[in-house]
Design the sequence.
């Protein structure tokens, strides 16, 4: 009975570590391949709109890219916190 409970606890710990490990790897892949380039494109588009076309175009570009940029920031920060919590354990 004790051995079975111990084995069950080890299986649960292994499943948790596997799930969180996959989450961490997927998050790092997402950051490197998708999130960082999108942040760069959003910020460079807003900067270039301000620099080349003026304040009105810059604000319009900020209004267009601000929403998706904030969604992307919120998703990456939340997932980053989960990955950091796992790595601290």
Sequence:
């Amino acid at each position: 009975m004790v051995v079975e409970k111990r084995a069950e606890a080890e299986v649960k710990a292994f499943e948790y570590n596997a799930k969180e490990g996959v989450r961490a790897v997927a998050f790092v892949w997402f950051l490197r391949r998708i999130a960082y380039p999108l942040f760069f494109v959003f910020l460079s588009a807003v900067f270039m709109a301000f620099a080349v076309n003026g304040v009105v175009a810059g604000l319009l570009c900020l209004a267009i890219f601000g929403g998706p940029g904030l969604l992307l920031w919120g998703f990456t920060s939340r997932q980053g916190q989960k990955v950091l919590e796992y790595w601290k354990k």
Observations:
- The two ends are 28 Å apart (CA to CA).
- The CA atoms of residues 8 and 14 lie 10 Å apart.
- The chain has two helices and no strands.
- The chain has a mean pLDDT of 89.
